């Protein structure tokens, strides 16, 4: 079953490459816990920072039975921010699935 996924872009152009990366990452999370319900991802370009380029903020809200995982990351590279958010979520999802199974 395909996990419902909602991706939104704010202050940044829609990117098919980012959407594909997010879909791949969500599919990976679904392998750890087949009971995941939905995932919402918001990608926002924040203003320029002193001595830096535009920072990208990524917020992921992942719903599982009885639990909502929320991860926020920032990076100048949107792809890196997405990967960092999903890496952290993967650890949380694995731990939660193990607890539910009683491991």
Automatic annotation (TrEMBL):
Record InterPro entries: RHF-like (IPR036567), RHF/RaiA (IPR003489)
Pfam families registered for this protein in UniProt: Ribosomal_S30AE
Source species of the chain: Parasutterella muris
UniProt-recorded name of the protein: Ribosome-associated translation inhibitor RaiA
């Amino acid at each position: 079953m395909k996990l419902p996924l909602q991706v939104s872009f704010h202050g940044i152009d829609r990117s098919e490459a980012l959407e594909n990366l997010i879909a791949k990452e969500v599919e990976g999370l679904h392998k750890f816990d087949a009971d995941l319900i939905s995932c919402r991802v918001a990608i926002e370009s924040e203003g320029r920072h002193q001595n830096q380029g535009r920072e990208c903020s990524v917020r992921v809200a992942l719903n599982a039975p009885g639990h909502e995982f929320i991860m926020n990351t920032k990076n100048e590279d949107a792809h890196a921010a997405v990967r960092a958010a999903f890496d952290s979520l993967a650890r949380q999802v694995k731990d939660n699935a193990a607890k539910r199974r009683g491991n």
